[in-house]
Amino acid sequence: MVYREMSALSGSLWTNIKNKRCGELMPIRQMYFLLLLSRQGKLRLQKWFTPVTEREKKVTREMTLMVLARPPHSCNFLLWRDLKIVYKRYASLYFCCGLEDQDNELLTLEVLQRYVELLDKYFGNVCELDIIFNFEKKAYFILDEFLVGGEILETSKTAVGIAMEEAETLQETMEEYMSKPTY
Amino acid sequence: FPKGRSSSLMIRVIRGARTQGEERGVIQRECAAIRAQFRQADNGTRSHNLAKLLYVHMLGYPAHFGQMECVRLIASPRYNEKRVGYLGAMMLLDEKQDASLLITNSIKNDLSHSSQYVQSLALCTLGCMGSAEMCRDLAPEIDRLLRASNSYIKKKAALCAVHIVRKVPELGELFTPASRSLLSEKNHGVLHGAVVLITELCERNPETLEQFRKAVPELVQIMKGLVMSGYSPEHNVAGISDPFLQVRILRLLRILGRNNETASDAVNDLLAQVATNTDSSKTAGSAVLYETVLTVMDIKSESGLRVLAVNILGRFLLNNDRNIRYISMTSLQKIVQTDHNAVQRHRGTIVDCLKDQDASVKRRALELSLALVSAVNIRSLMKELLLFLSSCPPELRAHTTSGIFNAAERYAPSQRWHIDTILHVLTTAGGDVRDETVPNLIQLITTATELHCYTVHKLYRALIADISVQSLVQVACWCIGEYGDLLLRGECEETEPVQVAEDDVLDALETVLQSHMSSPATRGFALTATMKLSTRITHNVDRIRSIVSIYGSCIDVELQQRAVEYNALFKKYDHMRAAVLERMPVIDKSSPGHTNGESAGGSIKEMEPTKRTQEVFSYLDMKYRLDAPLDHVTRPGKTLGPNYRLFMTFVSHSHPPQSVQLQMKAPSGDVIPAHGLGQVTQTVLLNNPNKVSLKMRVRVCYTSQDFVCQDTVQIDSFPSPAW
């Protein structure tokens, strides 16, 4: 696979990224990224489902500005470069997904809704601060039980929670182990 | 900081920073501490420190020094360290980093770990960022896990396999057998993963696709089960049982049914059932219905089913939810060519969406409206489009104007309507039209010969109202220059005539010339128009002479050149002025000169309309370029003006001028005796290397008893042995 260097502002950014993912020009139905943004545009969570350099990641800043500028009650879909962006605002957080053109946008809205519900259930009325202070422990781990490689892993509302709790007990066990004296 | 702050504390400190500079300072200190900690021996704080680093990384600061720490943590026996290590790997490592290869072995080991949660970490990471080599290395492991493990692992292995297939398509064959058997699983997570995997395999390999067509009945059964099942708290979303799985199954059925009668037949009933039974009051149901419609339109469905699908889209158009209106128009756009009449039925609703507040909805409505323009609806639809143009968002204006022009060109019911429409667009959005609009409009105007009077009146009125829109001003100037005499006549059939004097018209042009709003090209148009009027007005020619002479010292080089040439036309070549400045002929749309129009100094040609491959000689309409051809004919040294001029030049149509060369020799004399008592001959040499068939138009200008005369002769064929 050939890695092509490109300027961060290249219009064919996403075409190049798509080509990098797969040697052929296949119509890939896929989510490319999921970002959580604050109202001021600060990143609270970023999940990339495709290899992207730091510079390329910064290009999405342009997209985030477009999303943040949308008036309320707007359509939740917009076009950015050659990607579809599906976004939903929950309280002070914007959840943004970058999709391939073939995807079903309405279903993606349901995916975002489900993720919020999972966070809610686990944190109990999740707010932005929870995500900030528990990002690595909770927000990402919950996400990884729900989506893998841009695809839905589990469609059951309860299964994700169960897996999280069981994994937590494993973690605590380890921590107990660590705090035991070594003699 | 002996052991470093906890991550919550660090986050609090960072958030407490009041300025960007302060934040950078805090982060630098924290990173230094983290780096120091990484260098130390294992002290139980590594996972905390990596977590802190990941937070810093998310804020946009560099964190590459944490890469090796990820590798180390992944190899740790402790679960919490592995977990953060894998998270770090997914955030900081990608296949371009060398460090990513180092984790392959850890992943391999963890895939066989006794705890499924450790296995899950490895699967998740591989499925997110595994490189092609890692995928090749570990694919057999994944296949094993697809077959013999619990549901929790199977579903993760399935999505991991999806990633592998995307990276290394040849490995698809490896997973095909296992994926087939996964369809009999009951667990929704596994089933979903299996469907996604099978979809991926079928899209990449036509043979696999063929194989999985046999699974269509099984898929139909699963789908039916979901649709007809009772309420399941685990999977229910707004009355739909597992919409995610339903959509994926429908998508797979679409791929399997495409271009295949048997498979399509087998799903027709199911699709009808889903279409009629799905409650679309909430997004979940609409998502399923949407996927159903996409499937129906893509496979070989019965016509009744297609009608049902288009009707669903029509219903979506009336939905209050903007998102639903948006996706409805997206789908209608895809089928507007193939099912044009069905989509036309919803034209009214689509046009209403042009008035929606939302920019995304407006854009979709515009695309669809432009696709629906036809000879039948052009008048009413154009009204709506022009209305839209007057209030449309700036980012859509250029697209709207070019869409309107295309539609007008294809379906204009009359020339007057066409001209009116273009003028309306120029008045509303003249700043957003493409460059070709000006020459295109000029060409159109020349062809509408009965409307010259009407057109020049309209444009004159527009010009005196507003000279800021360059495209409009350019066309107006050109028109006034060409048809100014019609303006001054004071009568017009099609519209109320203006009562203007010559001075008024010249005032208007001079205003354009002098205005700082006028671009250099526009001023060129105005100057040329002024010059042309010198042969169309009677009283104020001196005024024109003085304008032209003033601009002979204009700073703008282009204007200066024109003015100097026009000056020459007033003085030395005054007897030619009328011929040179006479009314332009109808411009053929195909000629390259027409796209240059006035501004590039190209020549305007007359062509045989049908035979494009023929080269046609025509006289050079020298509006402001007086050069080489004249030199051929002028005989230097004669003080008395020669009695005739022979204008002839080659102008190419489909080849560059160089392919046919013209050379005019000196004429044998310069006076033709009266009463046919003598003749003058002039030899013209033509070099025609491409042996194209030629026509030649020759114009002779001469003076006879102090009158300037001209004659035109056309030579339609040359004896072919001549080439």
Automatic annotation (TrEMBL), chain A:
Coiled coil: none annotated. InterPro entries: AP1_sigma, AP_complex_ssu, AP_mu_sigma_su, Clathrin_sm-chain_CS, Longin-like_dom_sf. GO terms for biological process: intracellular protein transport. The keyword NAD does not apply. It is a peripheral membrane protein. One of its GO terms (molecular function) is clathrin adaptor activity. The keyword rRNA processing does not apply. Keywords: Coated pit, Cytoplasmic vesicle, Golgi apparatus, Membrane, Protein transport, Transport. It is found in: Cytoplasmic vesicle membrane; Golgi apparatus; Membrane, Clathrin-coated pit. One of its GO terms (cellular component) is AP-1 adaptor complex. Gene3D superfamilies: 3.30.450.60. Residues 31-167 form the AP complex mu/sigma subunit domain. Adaptor protein complex 1 (AP-1) is a heterotetramer composed of two large adaptins (gamma-type subunit AP1G1 and beta-type subunit AP1B1), a medium adaptin (mu-type subunit AP1M1 or AP1M2) and a small adaptin (sigma-type subunit AP1S1 or AP1S2 or AP1S3). PANTHER family: ADAPTOR COMPLEXES SMALL SUBUNIT FAMILY (PTHR11753). This is AP complex subunit sigma. It comes from Oncorhynchus kisutch (Coho salmon). The lineage of its organism: Eukaryota, Metazoa, Chordata, Craniata, Vertebrata.
TrEMBL record, chain B:
GO terms for biological process: intracellular protein transport; vesicle-mediated transport. It comes from the Eukaryota. The keyword Transport applies. One of its GO terms (cellular component) is AP-1 adaptor complex. Keywords: Cytoplasmic vesicle, Golgi apparatus, Membrane, Protein transport, Transport. InterPro entries: Adaptor_Complx_Large_Subunit, AP1_complex_gsu, ARM-like, ARM-type_fold, Clathrin/coatomer_adapt-like_N, Clathrin_a/b/g-adaptin_app_Ig, Clathrin_app_Ig-like_sf, GAE_dom. It is a peripheral membrane protein. Residues 587-607 are annotated as: Disordered. The keyword Protein transport applies. Gene3D superfamilies: 2.60.40.1230, Leucine-rich Repeat Variant (1.25.10.10). Pfam families: Adaptin_N (PF01602), Alpha_adaptinC2 (PF02883). Its main location: membrane. It is found in: Cytoplasmic vesicle membrane; Endomembrane system; Golgi apparatus. Residues 605-719 form the GAE domain. This is AP-1 complex subunit gamma. The gene is AP1G2.
